[in-house]
Specification:
Blueprint lengths: L7 H9 L11 H11 L3 E7 L13 E8 L5 E7 L20 E2 L2 E3 L3 H20 L7 E7 L10 H10 L6 E4 L11 E3 L1 E2 L1 E10 L3 E2 L9 H14 L13 E8 L7 E2 L2 E10 L5 H16 L5 E10 L2 E2 L4 H14 L4 E3 L7 H4 L5 E3 L13 E3 H19 L1
Parallel strand pairs: 3-6, 3-7, 7-18, 8-17
Antiparallel strand pairs: 1-2, 2-6, 4-5, 5-19, 9-16, 10-14, 10-15, 11-13, 12-14
Helix pairs in contact: 1-3, 3-9, 5-6, 7-9
Length: about 400
């Protein structure tokens, strides 16, 4: 075990220099594991998926890490991911996307905000506390995946099951996602909406537009289905969530002519739903609408529906009080509890322990020139230190 304090900003830069685009690791977990083992953590790697498959396949192997300091309860877990999204337009970056350079007081590079900066802040917080002689009255753990930005089928969900099968118990979990819209200290996410992805394929029979009785046009059927889905009022929201919404993301026919009735039409949509719904109930409703139209259609309608996460809410409690109090004590701002935004791996963790999310500012995540202020990483490190002190007090 080392008594050297790990500098959060420098460590974030080291992580950024590992081009860990999902599902590739490129040494990011090695960097993290080396630092954690230097602080006395026991680390174990978990690989899920098929190593023989190309990285573009959603079932390709993904590397994950669980690390724990101590064996006693309670176990406070920090969760996150070292994988990042692709860089996009290479030429649009002011700095190389995996440089991890500090320029004009900003740490720049893919993953700076989402979420290598958050991981580095938590590592720095633990390092500073341990170096001061502090020790947790329980355990601290890291649950780190390599496919949060991808299909998320060989990461957190399987990792949680694996460590649970080995007897590990997480008492509370903090996910270091970038939860703040424009300034550090604005929002703690204590819940997330669920997400359902739908792909509808309507297959009819191609023909000449002048002889429609000899064809079966899939386009009106697809439009009628999408109309039925979008006109339903899902809900008005509730005390923890905004109203659910269904958004059509694409309609495709691929017909470049004016005189051919196409054989196939497809549409994609997504539903972001709150705790007024369950994924299976929404799927049942969609399938009912499909069945109504299919009954009078000379063709087939295929609905591929996938719920990638259920809506959940961590009720305000002593745990969320600690998080809010810690932010306020460290930087003078008290964050609100919010369920707005997209999904995260917290949707899996909620089945094992109370979970909330707090991290850096997300304004530049997934964008060209992703960056975070150095002062924000330093302040987040102070906040995480305060969270640990208060939690184990």
């Amino acid at each position: 075990m080392t008594n050297n304090i790990i500098d959060s900003v420098a460590f974030a830069g080291e992580l950024i220099r590992c081009p860990s685009i999902t599902p590739l690791d490129k040494g990011a977990l090695d960097v993290l594991q080396t630092a954690l083992e230097g602080m006395g953590f026991s680390c174990k790697r978990y690989g899920f998926g098929d190593a023989s498959l190309p990285e573009t396949d959603e079932h390709a192997r993904v590397d994950n890490l669980y690390a724990r300091l101590g064996t006693a309860a309670p176990n406070f877990c920090f969760a996150g991911h070292t994988d990042v999204v692709p860089v996009g337009d290479d030429a649009g970056w002011d700095e190389p996307p995996f440089s991890g350079n500090v320029v004009n007081g900003e740490l720049r590079g893919r993953g700076a905000a989402d979420m290598k900066g958050g991981i580095a802040a938590f590592v720095g917080a633990v390092s500073a506390l341990l170096s001061s002689g502090w020790s947790p009255a329980g355990s601290i753990s890291f649950l780190i995946t390599g496919d949060e930005e991808g299909p998320a089928i060989n990461g957190t969900e399987k990792l949680l099951q694996a460590i649970t099968d080995e007897g590990q118990v997480i008492d509370h979990c903090l996910v270091g996602e970038p939860t703040n819209p424009t300034a550090l200290g604005q929002q703690i996410k204590n819940g997330r909406r669920g997400s359902l992805n739908g792909l509808i394929t309507v297959t009819g029979r191609q023909g000449h537009v002048a002889y429609p009785h000899l064809a079966s046009n899939p386009v009106p059927v697809l439009l009628a289905l999408m109309s039925a889905l979008t006109t339903r009022h899902l809900d008005d929201g509730n005390s923890g969530f905004q109203p659910s919404n269904l958004e059509i993301t694409t309609l495709d026919v691929g017909n470049n002519t004016t005189n051919i009735i196409p054989a196939k039409a497809t549409g994609r949509f997504n539903i972001r739903f709150n705790t007024e719904h369950k994924g299976d109930d929404l799927k049942a409703w969609i399938n009912e609408e499909v069945a109504k139209l299919a009954a009078d259609f000379d063709g087939t309608i295929d609905a591929q529906l996938r719920v990638t996460g259920e809506a959940f809410l961590t009720d305000p409690s002593g745990f969320t009080d600690i998080l809010q109090d810690s932010v306020e004590a460290a930087i003078g701002t008290r964050p609100e509890l919010s369920t707005a935004g997209g999904t995260s791996d917290a949707r899996y963790i909620t089945h094992y322990a109370p979970v909330a999310e707090f991290g850096l500012i997300g304004a530049t995540m997934h964008k060209v020139n992703e960056r975070v202020a150095v002062t924000d990483i330093e302040n987040l490190t102070r906040i995480y230190s305060e969270v640990l002190r208060r939690y184990f007090a």
